[in-house]
Amino acid sequence: MTNTWTPTKVRYLESLLTERDSQILADLERFRALSTRLVQRLHFPAGPHGLHATVPTATRLANRVLLRLEAHGFIARIDRRVGGPLRGSAATVWHLAATGERLLRARRGEAGRRRFVTPSRDFLAHTLAVAEFAVTVEEAELGNALDVLELDTEPSCWRPFQSALGVVTLKPDLFLVVANSEVEAHIFVEIDRGTEHLPAVLKKCRTYQQYRQTGIEQARSGVFPAVLWITPEAERARKIRTAIRREPELPADLFSICAEADALPALQSLLSPSTTD
Question: How many angstroms separate the Cα of 11 from the Cα of each of 101, 103, 171, 251?
């Protein structure tokens, strides 16, 4: 095969992919990086609501598919480990390789390609933490705990707006619209890894308040989303909550702060009628 991306080459590459393969490539583009375990949870679910009886069986199948996609050049491993409980193949982290990235662009009629730069350990840890929460939300939908009406990742969830200092872009980690049988909630999500100093966190909170005051989001959807900060542990959540309450220009009811272990209950609490506009 030549390096020219002819229609024939695109058709050949398409022939190598199943529908699930294509969904995996799309999720790697959407989240930028995924571990084998996250791919398994998204596309090879196990347990009462899943396709497979056990997690080990599902993981073996996921790994087999990922190795095949790697062999065809659609995906590649990120040669950088991050901390966490996973070991072995479940902890391998994947990204779109050149062939996979260019194929997705070709499907959309886009030219060019994106240059991959190996992420720093902190950036990768944050990227995987964002993906972890998003997968948890999608699993909650699978378990009928809530409905996910919208889940936007970066950069599609970003919100540019005009401020006194020029154009500012609010950059949430995720934007969610979730619902239950009674209410619908719009939520900006911030995944805090405990690496930012509190002044940087408060600056981001002020940007949310500035954006809220423009009325752009309210004109679009009728409400301004809640802002959910998810921290590594309860003590960090307490510090952020206290810092926000000490800032008179920040409306405390705009922000919900919780530890990672309590993230899903905190999200579900935002579906209470008393917490929605």
Answer: 15, 10, 37, 54
